[in-house]
Amino acid sequence: MFSFHHVFDHPMARGFPNRFSTQYRCYSVSMLAGPNDRSDVEKGGKIIMPPSALDQLSRLNITYPMLFKLTNKNSDRMTHCGVLEFVADEGICYLPHWMMQNLLLEEGGLVQVESVHLMVATYSKFQPQSPDFLDITNPKAVLENALRNFACLTTGDVIAINYNEKIYELRVMETKPDKAVSIIECDMNVDFDAPLGYKEPERRAQNNDEPTEEDGDPSSYADMDTGFRAFTGSGNRLDGKTKGIEPSPAPLAPSDIKRGIPNYDFKVGRITFIRNSRPQPKKNVEDDDAMNRFIAFSGQGQSLRKKGRKP
């Protein structure tokens, strides 16, 4: 009889032989010794690990790109990251400050580092943590440029990006097809939620008040004429006398100016052209009778040749 005992005893069947898992004491990048400025680590989602980790990963034949799951067992918080370099001291790894905040880690705290394989991202949604993010002209382009320094995204993380010497924090609200995805060489759709603390601008209600008494009666409106008025100046006599000179009329007061009659039949999208029409002159009855009595070619003519005279 065939026995299954040796099948489950095979070393390949015990767990995952290509899995990297160890613990490090983590520090922020500012604690990294050396003359070089490593502020580039703070702008991304990658960590710095010791050289021994590279040797162990090489022996395990880890698939590339190298992605890791970071876990703080004391607070049960986890995130995912990539690796930038293997230059840290043994037993130590250096993390970006925003990553330590997500994991609730202090300087020198223990973090569990495990190698993982993540699915490629197809969609992600972010929520800015401040309305200042709306001041950016093209936020998607800024985010796309900043994510080049990241290897993966984890739902629930608050990542930090640097733009124009200012740090903007974004919460990862959703990722597809999984809660943790790889964003290396991927075509990912990006969406934004309303920033935290953002309020919609209040729209002022339009005042549809009825016309007051000062507006006057619409039925009594006349054409407005505030332009040139003829013969409104004052005259001067050549002999210097003031007799017969009438004073110029008083200027019009605003209350004397009347507006035109509004078109109460106005409809949106319709234009009506109103032309001034002059009344037709009244015709006299006698003129009408004369026109009715007129008969063409009914007059009498005169001849230049006298009657009775032969040529």
UniProtKB/TrEMBL annotation:
The keyword Hydrolase does not apply. Residues 20-118, 121-195 form the Ubiquitin fusion degradation protein UFD1 N-terminal subdomain domain. Residues 200-259, 275-311 are annotated as: Disordered. InterPro entries: Ufd1-like (IPR004854), Ufd1-like_Nn (IPR042299), UFD1_N1 (IPR055417), UFD1_N2 (IPR055418). Keywords: Ubl conjugation pathway. It comes from Xenotaenia resolanae. The keyword Kinase does not apply. This is Ubiquitin fusion degradation protein. Belongs to the UFD1 family. It comes from the Eukaryota.
